[in-house]
Amino acid sequence: MIATGTGIEHHGRGRSTHRYGSVDVSRVLPRVAALLAAFLLGVVMLLMPAAAEAKSVAGASEPRTASAPSEAGATPPRIAMTKCAAGGPDSLECGQLITSEQRRNADSRTVAVPWVRHRVPVKGEPNPPVVYVAPSGTAVREAGRMLATGLFADRDLIVVETRGGPTGDDALVCGTAPAAQLALLQANQAEPAARAAAMTTYATALKGCTDAYVADEHVLQGIAVIESAADVAELRTLLSIPTWYAMGSDWSSIVALQAAVYDTQGIVGVIADGYASQNLQSQRNAGLQAAAQDLEARAGAEAVDFDALVKAYNAEPLTVTSTNPLTGAPLSWRVDGFDLAMLFQQALRDSSVNPYAEVWLRQARDRDAEALDVLVQRALPGVLSNATAASWVYTCRLAPGEVSTTWLFNDADVKQVCNALQVGVEGTVPVPAQPIVALFGTGNPLASPRLGTEALAAAPAAQELTFATGGADLLATSSCARTVLTTWMKAPAMAVAAPACAKAATAVKTSDQVIAAPRFAPQLALGTFQVWSVLLIPLLFAVIAPVWTLAWAGGLAASLVRRRGRVAALLAGVAPVFSLLSIAGIAWVVWRLYRTNDSVFLVGAPHGVVWGGLCLIPALVGVGALFYLRRWFDAILAAIAVLAYAGWFAWAVLGWG
Fold first, then answer.
1. Cβ distance 405 to 430 under 8 Å?
2. Measured between alpha carbons, how far is residue 34 from residues 25, 38, 41, 46, 252 in Å?
3. What predicted TM-score, i.e. pTM, was given to this entire model?
4. Quick one: pLDDT band at residue 32, thresholds 50, 70, 90?
């Protein structure tokens, strides 16, 4: 033992201890260190929420233009992560923007505005993301639809819902409006007094919904373009995104433009997929006429004079017997020219009905009541879901020169509804200074190029491009538009043009997702048993191919056991195996497409069906192998089956002969 001051050091058996008086320092110090670490960890955990809140407040105070609807007493915005709803890609992350329902009101309650984000892993400097303002529907559904276009393989996509949307805290739903709207549609041919009474009932139903909304302590002023645009500006800051592109579709393009005015530093460009800027009622029939001519030109058929068709139906409506989409009961409806325009426009607007529009147009010209019955069943649910209470509030808030009315109603109807709702007018949306690209489709009468030209005339850096397409969903139906938009996002300050691909887009029949029209498409649309009998040959082949393949597999197994005739057994399997591959591949394509967009079968065959049909070539070679092996009976039966199916395929799918 060696004494050193008051400290004592002990040595023994390879271990040393340090003591101060009677205190064993080597045992006490680790305990003190552990207590200090636990204390510091607790302090950090307590301070983290406060730091995050301070960061949110700091981010929310980022300078914007003075016109943004933000006041000192408004609730500081923040982000809350949520679980994504079913029905969207697994790669999405979902959240809510927690902010004031009305920013100019210091006492306003908070609301949760849903948003979703799809991240793209990139190396190096990431491309600016795109924030898409969903014009309707849920953010998850809209994100899935936009990702399906393939536009966002190199950049993140963020989708934010507009105020009053279906899943936000401030959702304005109106369960009584669709029934009142359907009664109004059926009263179109009634006496003026009955028509006026139905219109009053519809306006009263909408007013009842907004009154209930306010009674539930919501602020109707929160459903406005300025509030939705401010949501976009706040979301960028809270997600720590330096810059991004703002994108809208039809009326939501107005929100994207307003957001760019608020967030001049963060939004580097605006994409307007169509831009509805005026009262469309006076332009509706002219737009539909142009869309019908374009549709027929690309289908290679004689153009239908849509204006004359509307006048003919107004003079002599056609009675159809359909199904009430609200109750499932039978629905008798006298379709006049007004209804015809409404249904055709819905056919152009809805991607699930759009592929059928060209065939249906010719059937309407022939006054085919059964075909109109099919169209009513497919289009009417979308018609009744378009003019929601929230869409009416947005419509009535815009200044008269900026009203984007639903095409279901005339000017007097719009005025009556807006007078009933009694919402204030926001005023004209200013045009931002950032680069703007406005994309228009010739088949989209909801947002015609001429109206967009008038609206964006004052924009210093606006480019307007028009593409040939079958409907309102331009980015889904025109690969040319997608290519041009991708080019523009790489250099928005540079001019882009569409002429290089306009001709290719025009050559497409209905959309670039559909190929040749089957001969029996118009009859198939009626769904009669006699028409489905045309499919008897492929259905029989679908039964023969697997049975034939199983029988061959059994013979092959026997030859392997006997160890003789193996080469002949393998050659005998070429025809049944490739026949089964053809049927299995086509069945998979048909089932997958039926689950997503069954209406494509009304006018055309999907690309995958043709690729599956290529398996018939080696199947025919396999039939020749059976003749080579002198298996005459098998060869004759195989030749009959494969040749019959190949002939049907060439006639019905490829349109040969």
1. no
2. 14, 6, 11, 18, 57
3. 0.67
4. low
